[in-house]
Design a protein that fits this description.
By secondary structure, this protein is mainly alpha-helical. It has helices at about 35-40, 55-60, 85-110, 115-130, 140, and strands at about 5, 10-15, 20, 30. The N and C termini lie far apart (about 80 Å). About 5% of the residues are buried.
């Protein structure tokens, strides 16, 4: 089973899925979905479209260089079947995936390191700028500029003139 990569967004294409476009010069472009195919036909650059893998790598959102990417490379040389080699390969794939996940998590945490402090400073700046919109619940008692609440006692015998009509 051969898994291809989408030319536009670099996601995996499983057998029987996607669109294949062959240009006049016999260059083959494979797309995972019609969204990628339409963007290709509109001559959009994948490095400038924000949801593509190329954009994420170019702008430092994803890892670009790592030794684990070497194992993902496409190899067209056929190998003889050997049960031990297959067993070792499958166990190595699990280890490599674990290493890749750990490195991606470390990369993400390094990238987001200053984000929490930045959000905190932005929030405090916004509160300082718009503090006049925020009043504490006890501010009515201490603020002399606000009108005082008028207390009205409700009695059962009110004249008909003062009652509200329904």
């Amino acid at each position: 089973m051969r898994l291809e990569k989408c030319w536009f967004c670099s996601s995996t294409i499983y057998p029987g899925h996607g669109i294949q476009y062959v240009r006049n010069d016999a260059k083959i472009f494979r797309f995972c979905r019609s969204k990628c195919h339409k963007n290709f036909k509109m001559k959009r650059n994948p490095r400038k479209v924000q949801w593509t893998k190329a954009y994420r790598r170019l702008h430092g959102k994803d890892m670009t260089q790592d030794a684990t990417f070497e194992f993902e490379r496409k190899r067209n040389r056929p190998e003889r079947y050997d049960r031990n080699v297959v067993e070792n390969t499958l166990s190595a794939i699990k280890k490599i995936d674990k290493v890749r996940v750990d490195r991606e998590a470390r990369h993400h945490s390094n990238r987001m390191r200053g984000k929490k402090e930045q959000q905190h400073t932005e929030a405090t700046r916004e509160i300082e700028d718009s503090i006049h919109l925020v009043h504490a619940p006890g501010a009515a008692q201490t603020n002399p500029f606000l009108p005082e609440k008028i207390k009205v006692s409700a009695s059962a015998s009110q004249p008909d003139d003062e009652r509200m009509e329904e």
